[in-house]
Write the structure tokens for this entry.
Amino acid sequence: MDKFAAVERALRSAAPHTLLNVVTVALMEQYGAERVELRLADYGMRSLQAVESVPYTTEPVLIHGSPQGRAFGAQEPCVTHDNGSYDVHLPVTIRGDRMGVLTVRLPEDRYAQSLLPEILHVCQALGHEILVAERDTDLYVLARRAARLTLAAEMQWQLLPGRSCVRPEFSLGAHLEPAYAIFGDNYDWSASANHLTLTVTNGMGEGIEAALLTNLAVNALRNARRAGLDLADQAALADQAVYAQYRGSAYVSVLLLRFDLNTGEVEAVDAGSPRMWRLRERSVEAVSFDAQLPLGMFEDTVYVPERFTVESGDRLLFGSDGVYEASSPAGERYGERALARSLLSTRLLPPAQVPGAVLRELAGYHGETPLDDDALVVCLDWRGRPDNGDDGEADEVSGGF
């Protein structure tokens, strides 16, 4: 652990663009590493892109079918042996958000399985520092893109909280397609000591206009949440903000939920098109709410929350209309039967992998023609608190992960 402390100190004092260099030098000096490589998952979650001073000079590695991809998917070290050296591939993950993979090449005489926990600690420290460094450098953001983002997609990815999150009470995963050209779909989450707030959003329109509309709505919801307003008032404030800007000519559909981490009781405001399905044991059912007006359609809309309860072991899946309304070549909508089959077939996957798996199946279901709308899937596994106790912390209303 003394080695880890030294690496952590070096990372904290390093310039944002030099994090990989610092880790490389430390691993070479303390573990005899011959080579160190950091790869981050691209926006489409299909490839792992090398972090390097000149972007795109190293070929990407596919997540499916590679040792690095196995470490990323299983969230466990994957070790390969070749020509007298061991390549150790380790996941770089922060609070459940899967960022990428660090590969460390060690000579045979320096490799030992007992080293893996120590290097995993280094990966965790590196991941934390990358999150901080992204405020000051584009190096890690550039490494994530396998192609150029549209301006609307750039705006949306900067707005998102992350792609997955794990806490003792729940696990979350989310994904959007087309990853490099999304415009109106969005998700957001924030957790405090005793509550999780989750929103699934779909702004009408296409391109920049849809991205601008969604940005306004999401930031209005965050502003209301951080002001300590209850769920209905969060929706009302965002509704007023959108209406004041667009006067009813554009609106935003949103499903807004607030989970009590102690009891599993959930407040919900259904203001538009995003929908929810529940997998309980081996039974899948669509969960419907009283439909209320989308945000910004009319002035001074009053929103009324509904309540339901989640049980330990429940899996909730949320989808935008680009998912459940997508049609097969025969004309059957994906949400009618295929989505339930997909939810059952992916029940053994962790939530971080479920959205991508569902969207890949959706692409095959839809056929060769591209989807005519962006598509969003969010997956939530609920565990709750076994003792239903309160840890005594003050409930915060701002921030996220």
The chain is about 30% helix and 30% strand.
